[in-house]
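Slide 14.
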Amino acid sequence: MKKLLILSALLLALAGCKGTPEVKVMARNVPERADDFVFENNLVAGRFYGEALEGNPTSPGIDIWVKLPGKLVADEWYKGAMEDPDYYHHNHGGKDCYKVAVSLGGGASAPMIGGKLCYPSTNYRSFEMLEESPDKVVFVLHYPAWQASETVSVSLDKKITVLPDSYFCDVEDTYKFTGAETLTIAAGVNRHPAQGTLVEERLGSGHYALWEHASDQSIEPEDGMLGVAVVVPDAGESFVTADGIHGICTREIRSGEAFCYSFGSCWSKGEVKDAAAWFNIVSKQK
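Slide 15: predicted structure.
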């Protein structure tokens, strides 16, 4: 009996050493803050705008949040925002210092018709969690049908996979449309020409990347640099839009065909210290 007790204690001790898996990813709807949908791994974080925020703004753009590598911070930041709405605009080991407004933000996509980006008429309206584990989350955001042009009606299901230890998230955008046989879809990044933030950029086959100063300094000065990028396999073209606002990569699709790409970001206060290091990461992502 004594030997059995010792063996049981040993097994419990070994089990305790293994512990529970470290949670390195998360994603959730945030009804307490204007229906945001937040996502995060141990290196990057960001959010999509929900119904309660429509008009302020109505935008498909990805609002990237910079952070130091390591722990998950989104829940802590949202909790702080319940008392101080500007909480996550202050530096708490990272912050929201990237301006989205009505744009693609840090890596969204949209149909491009006649050289113009045709944004959804609403923010995301519903979501599904497809997979949740300590090292992988997969979710889908649904954008109801909107009139992209006089003849083309479009809806979007945006599926995003978040894995740990990566500066990029994978996207599978399924556009369903009527009024056209094919549509050109553009994934891109806001270059913030009005703020004059751009320091360096890389434009190539299937990718666009930039290195810039913070574009939102309304709350406090920013002492770091941001890297942002999109990578689109089999892109037809990559270019800066005529108005200078976006760097984009495009591909033509049929209705119901997935438009697959990756978006990523980093902060110079973390492990990616300069433009050369960021552009190297983007090249490897390709």
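Speaker note: The helical segments are 2-18, 74-81, 275-285.
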